[in-house]
Design brief:
The chain has helices at residues 2-16, 19-26, 30-44, 60-84, 100-106, 111-117, 134-137, 169-175, 229-237, 247-255, 285-298, 301-306; strands at 49-51, 56-58, 92-98, 121-127, 141-145, 153-161, 163-167, 189-192, 202-207, 213-218, 225-226, 242-246, 260-262, 271-278. It is of the alpha/beta class. The strands form four sheets. It has a five-stranded mixed sheet with strand order 4-3-5-14-6. Strands 11-8-12-7-13 form a five-stranded mixed sheet. It has a two-stranded antiparallel ribbon with strand order 1-2. The chain is globular and about 70 Å long.
């Protein structure tokens, strides 16, 4: 029980940003939360949070541990719900938000299948590329791809996403295949004209002489750019150049031989596909079942190649 309470307290402190806010939410004194955090760090032998008079900052180890703890606590809640709920059915209205492109391909096709399993739940799906205020706009949860800065939300990783350079085999036959990211300057690169997630350029892992690897960002140019990722996808399929796209966008075409992956040895480490939701003491059963439902599909490699046929 003490260990579990330490984990719960650590998650509360990290997501709420202060000992005082976490203690207020739990109804205890800040000193108690501080002792639980101290005991956890002592037991693990690592520093999870750097505390100053003004703010708390997660260490590298703390960030990784936070994600694992959040997933563990959600799994524990699911296990308890499966026993205590017994034959209780999920009910109510489930409000979900997701990025437009990803949502059209990999969230929307799953909603009818989820509803078929849980017919007492009604579902609203909002697709938008803006960062939605979940609590303020009344959403139960959101699907987000990549890193996100909002630490006030609980996140559960349900899948992995990588970015790869792809082009049609015909383009590569005509223009050659780059062997190093620096050679992209000699190619037609199809880039986003306005996307905050790519302001630093395309990311690659470049091996060093000592065997380590450094993430380096390139900003390739080209004759055409667009603010819409689907348009870049279509241009790439048309053989107009090389694009840096997420695996969720191109895996089916790669599997079918319509697109070929280039510079795969330099691909950066994957980021996550998360379900995020506001802090809640008791997560509704309909949300817990939705998270498990997504994880079931997203963990299957074939899902990303074939999708769901409605």
């Amino acid at each position: 029980m003490d260990r579990l309470k330490q984990l719960e307290s650590f998650v509360a402190i990290a997501t709420r940003g202060s000992l005082t806010a976490a203690a207020k939410a739990e109804g205890v004194a800040p000193a108690i939360m501080g002792r639980r955090l101290d005991a956890l760090e002592e037991r693990l032998g690592v520093k999870l949070l750097v505390r100053t008079t003004r703010k708390l900052t997660l260490t590298h180890e703390g960030s990784a541990f936070l994600e694992d703890c959040q997933r563990l606590l959600v799994d524990l809640a699911n296990v308890e719900a499966s026993v205590s709920a017994g034959g209780v059915k999920a009910t109510g209205h489930l409000r979900i938000t997701a990025p437009a492109g990803f949502g059209r391909r990999h969230v929307a096709p799953l909603v009818p299948l989820y509803w078929e399993r849980h017919p007492d739940v009604t579902v609203s799906l909002n697709l938008s590329d803006r960062v939605v205020d979940l609590a303020g706009e009344g959403f139960d949860c959101g699907v987000r791809v990549g890193d996100f800065p909002d630490s006030s939300l609980v996140s559960v990783r349900v899948g992995d996403n990588r970015r790869l350079c792809v082009a049609t085999p015909e383009y590569l036959r005509r223009h050659g295949t780059p062997q190093h990211p620096s050679e992209l300057a000699q190619h037609r690169c199809l880039t986003l004209s306005s996307d905050a997630s790519q302001t630093r350029g395309w990311a690659f892992r470049i091996p060093g002489e000592d065997g380590s690897a450094e993430v380096v960002h390139f900003r390739p140019g080209g004759p055409m750019d667009c603010s819409d990722g689907q348009v870049l996808h279509d241009w790439c399929l048309g053989g107009w150049g090389i694009a840096w796209r997420s695996t969720w966008e191109v895996e089916a075409e790669v599997a079918a031989g319509q697109l070929a992956v280039v510079l795969e040895d330099f691909a950066a480490a994957p980021n996550g596909i998360h379900v995020v939701f506001p802090q809640r003491k008791h997560l509704p059963l309909r949300v817990r079942l939705w998270i498990d439902f997504l994880r079931h599909y997203y963990e299957q490699p074939e899902f990303w190649k074939q999708g769901v046929k409605l």
